[in-house]
């Protein structure tokens, strides 16, 4: 082939490609592209093979007649996909003959080892193997000895301490110890049994239920729990733990002690709205925004501050507008404390999130009106709230009732009182919070969750359309908050997470058995053919063997009472 002419080399490339992909091309119509134009006339002629073609080309043309194809000429400049691969081969040095022979030898050995692995890997733990390992196990050998010679009345041997209370249920069949209906597994095979139980990652409860039907050894339950806790796949796919006990915000004592802000939208009208809610009075403010940059957000909040006053604290989520330097400068200028809620935990900003839902529902109902936002705000501000002990937001925020159209039904001389007993209202707030907390904890089955600094945890990491559990370490708890600062090596920075987004992580211990797969099901080490031949064949199990239980006690003949009338006592 080195002596082929250029046209023959180009033709050989086409023949090689077609024969290489014969299974994919045969019976289907395809396009054959080449950058050698003379081959179009030779292989693509509708009038048959040209008679002036070389015999080698004619033979190749006959081979191509078995396929249904159209041949197409492509300029070399547009034929880079195949052209670059043909030039890439020349950059690699040609291996010597010795290297080729060594590679062939290595490939052969790997192929043989892979065959042995494929045969040996799926072999389960058999009863005959358990019987052999039971005889080698010193503790189980002592148990078998007790079955033959009798158990001691007092348990003085610490090795038999786990089996002595269960001695009545232990028996022997074909050299295997059985506890009830469960096989007692020797120490050398326990890791393989754990791997078999964990092969489909069923979880702790299901693994224990399977083990209770088939296998037993002292401490199997704890080893199952340890294995699942250290399995990365199981931990990465675990469900979110039960919610922690509700930690409500401290009830404010006055207006603008704490306000909550958030964005709603883009809504059905194409706009995004900034919502502003006072935590004490539930007084809302709504501002239409487009666009929603940090500069625009600061300008809107400045207009609210100039109209209503400066709040002591602003609570927001972690949106880029609130994390910007412009917003930080705004808070610093007006002496406002800025508090962030945990990422991806809108429940922590529930004061404004609840109003977001109310606002969107009002948009669906009244969005066609011209001044629907103003009408919605007026109705909300003047409506008594159950969470405010029957008071309305305007009554608590302004200290008076706002005049509305419904007030026209009252005569001019009638006065509507708006006295708010602050002490009574504060007691109601505390009782209302306790009631809501109790309802939440009962509904969600909440449990108290706390973490210590330095404790290893898993935390939820949120990505586009996907959540995953990442490993981290607790640094500290945010003061008066169920939020923790966590160090996450995977992303290279510290993050804040709500306690509901964290769960305990069991660190992988170094003494974990190597043959217990906690991450991926690795292949068993290859055995040589000599080792395969040395494995003794498993003998057939004898049938109709009765189980060997506890040794029979010595029975004495019964001495029956023979009454003697002359004797007064026996």
From TrEMBL:
Catalytic EC class: transferase
A Gene Ontology biological process term: DNA integration
Transmembrane regions: none
Keywords: Endonuclease, Hydrolase, Nuclease, Nucleotidyltransferase, RNA-directed DNA polymerase, Transferase
Compositionally biased intervals (Basic and acidic residues): 507-524, 559-570
Keyword Nuclease: yes
Stretches for region Disordered: 499-570
Domain Integrase catalytic intervals: 248-401
Annotated InterPro entries: DNA/RNA_pol_sf (IPR043502), Integrase_cat-core (IPR001584), Integrase_H2C2 (IPR041588), Retrovirus_Pol_polyprotein (IPR050951), RNaseH-like_sf (IPR012337), RNaseH_sf (IPR036397), RT_RNaseH (IPR041373)
Pfam families in the record: Integrase_H2C2 (PF17921), RT_RNaseH (PF17917), rve (PF00665)
GO cellular component terms, A-Z: DNA polymerase complex
EC number: 2.7.7.49
Source organism, top-level taxon: Eukaryota
Protein name: RNA-directed DNA polymerase
Species of provenance: Meloidogyne incognita
